[in-house]
Amino acid sequence: MDGSTRTPPAAATVAGAVAAVAVGAYFGTRGLAVARQAGFADLVQGFPTGSLRLSGTLVALGAGALLAVVLAAVAVADRLPGWPVALAGLALDYLAGEVGLRQGAGLVPQQPPTAEGVLAVLAAVGAGLALGGALSAVARSAPARRWPVAAALAAGLVVGPGVEDLFRLAAGDGVASGGRGWSAQVGVSVLAVVVAAVLRHRESGRPVGTANADPAGPPTGEPGRRSAGRAPIGAVVATAVAAVLTLAGLMTRWWVVDVFRLSPDGLVGPRRARFVESVAYFSPVAVAVVAGLVLLGYAWRTGRATAARWVVLGFATGPLLLLGLRLGFVGERAQAYLVLLAGVAAVVAGATLARLRPGLLPWDAVGLLLAALAVPFAAPTVQAELPGTGTLVVSLPSALGLGLALGFGLVLVVTAPGADADRDPGRAAGVLALGAAAIALSALALAPTVIRGLGLGPSEGVALTVPMLVAVSALVLVLLFGFGRAVDRIRRDLRAEATTEGPRP
Predict the structure, then answer these.
(1) How far is it, in rounded angstroms, from Cα 385 to Cα 193?
(2) Which residue of 90, 245, 352, 397 has the smallest Cβ count within 10 Å?
(3) How many other CB atoms are found less than 10 A from the CB of residue 423?
(4) Closest CA to 64 of 108, 41, 43, 34
(5) Is Transmembrane set as a keyword in this record (predicted)?
């Protein structure tokens, strides 16, 4: 095809960045809503003393686990085009959402598997397709455009609640959830993804479905050779194992809660209530850690310290993204705009540091610690002491911390030499998928802990669980950063020694 028919690289990069923001914002609200609601499946049924339904719980938790598996499978599949798959995911999730709103159904099935269960599964599959397609497009972009599209995806994840709130305000929905604002956000997101897919197709000069590699990037296949972009199936297997372990752990919690919260006389005593609460809100921490260790182990095997840092970051940001940016454009518009701008600026700063000075400091750990400070401020008792600025003291540190952490971590994993993104985009897509799966699974497991920590009911000791977990994750990031620096120094010394000695006779 003649070169004059191809799209200028700058236009394709801008279109890809806009689409990444749209998909990231969509997943940051809708995809995490699936994980959040599924995490409460066994705690909202039969409350406070009624019997729990195994079928409804299993379907809901299965949908949350399926979210991680689908996004990983889509991201690593070399034969699937990124942006068209993301478009299909948006359409499927919107269809499930519209049907659910019309029928008055929620994301968590309250009955045996019926229409609600089907809608929960469709919503999980749609959100997984959307994010997985975006990750695939990022990994298989040309090296020069990979990092701005990755930074845009991070920005969408961080400011997702603000984007949703802006569409509600523009559509005149006020503080309502859904309605015209929901439809407007879906329409704009679909349009952005369509433009990105079309420009990518025109730039490549061949049908999008025939190959999923950027023409300016490395080739994905040569005659007689195995495609360099074919993703390792191990990333999907590791995600599936982590998802099964998460599902098994949460089902064990369901059994314990169902058995022990009912006393023989039908009354719940204080000691039994404390035990049930401990199991319900603290056992998921162990479940999330086990699943995270599985993803971390495979990430270390695939990309060493750089890939491991991305998985640890994803594990820690899952519950923090659930807290989100507590924006309210209706009553606090000036503060909301400030938070949105701060979040975008933090992502840009993190991406710039990852490109120019990645070895200066572990900025992902710094961002996590800053975002963790906002969690205790979200408690109602603290909010009551901060009239007028309660929303800002939560949203601003969250936006700055998450923006710095995700902007730095996501750009680092697609640009660092150890990521092998240039030589093997499929492997890079697998690493990206591992971190995204860690976000989804940790959000699924820790959703009740996050919400209870905000003060919705007795929460002694629960409020500090997530900040402490994030602080430990930040410490692990610092250790991985130091290990990576030490390895790089040893390699430089060995190369210098080899150059000084010269070839031996």
Answers:
(1) 44
(2) 352
(3) 11
(4) 34
(5) yes
**Residue 362: closest CA among 473, 442, 489:** 473
Whole-number Å distance between alpha carbons of 338 and 106: 33
List Cα–Cα distances, 317 to 135, 373, 403, 440, in angstroms: 17, 13, 11, 10
Q: For residue 106, count other CB atoms closer than 10 A to its CB.
A: 15
Residues 268-305: tens digit of each pLDDT: 556 666 677 777 778 888 999 999 999 999 999 888 88
Which two structure tokens, joined as six digits, stand for 476? Answer: 């692990």
Alpha-carbon distance 479 to 305, whole Å? 10
| CA angle centred on 301, ends 296 and 303, rounded to 5° | 90
Backbone region of residue 461 per phi and psi (left: phi > 0; alpha: psi in -120 to 50; beta: other values): left
* Amino acid residing at 246: T
The structure's pTM equals 0.84
Task: Quick: pLDDT tens for 106-129.
Answer: 444 444 445 566 777 888 899 999
Burial label for 474, CB within 10 Å (0-12, 13-18, 19+), is buried
311's tokens: 């998985």
Phi, psi at 58, each rounded to 5°: -65, -40
Find tokens 């006020």 and name the residue.
174
| Rounded distance between C-alpha atoms, residue 69 and residue 291, angstroms | 13
Handedness of CA 65, 68, 72, 73 (dihedral sign): positive
For CA atoms 248, 460, 161, 178, the dihedral sign is: positive
